[in-house]
Amino acid sequence: MLSTPLDYIFWWWFMINLGSIIKILRPNNRDSEAKCFCKVHDCDGTFDLIDRGVCSVPLKQIVGSVGKCLDFDSQFTPKSHVPLNRMISIKRALLEGKSLPPVILYQINDEYYVMDGNHRIAAAKELDRFNIKAKILEFIPISHTCSVSKESV
What we know:
- This protein is of the alpha/beta class.
- The protein has helices at residues 5-25, 37-44, 85-95, 118-126, 142-152, and strands at residues 35-36, 47-58, 62-65, 103-108, 111-116, 131-141.
- It has a 6-stranded mixed β-sheet with strand order 1-3-5-4-6-2, sandwiched between helices.
- Helix 1 packs across helix 3 (85-95) and helix 3 packs across helix 4.
């Protein structure tokens, strides 16, 4: 399969860039930017916060970012102004099976927003992974918690 060092280098380059190559060939899947948590949070009012701990989250449910909305498109492909060296090292670590720390996600309803780990999310999506380990902080609108507590009385 890989008989020379050049074959090995090409294989690594190809695997690291496969997601980018596919997205270039199918550009119509790209929206302008990831959803911004602050806009959603501000529209929905006041929230209670619940720490849900660490669990596996489907990547397709991660729709936006807390602070880097302008750095990634809606598919979490880095925009052209974002340096790619971090993406390359994260993809390499994932391909080698190395353990990475969980990303930190904010949850509102069934959508997740990246607080920490935007590059890890982007790398996992480019490598066609389905899930990622994440620490979840769920934001529940106070109106929901008030109606639940009134119903239980």
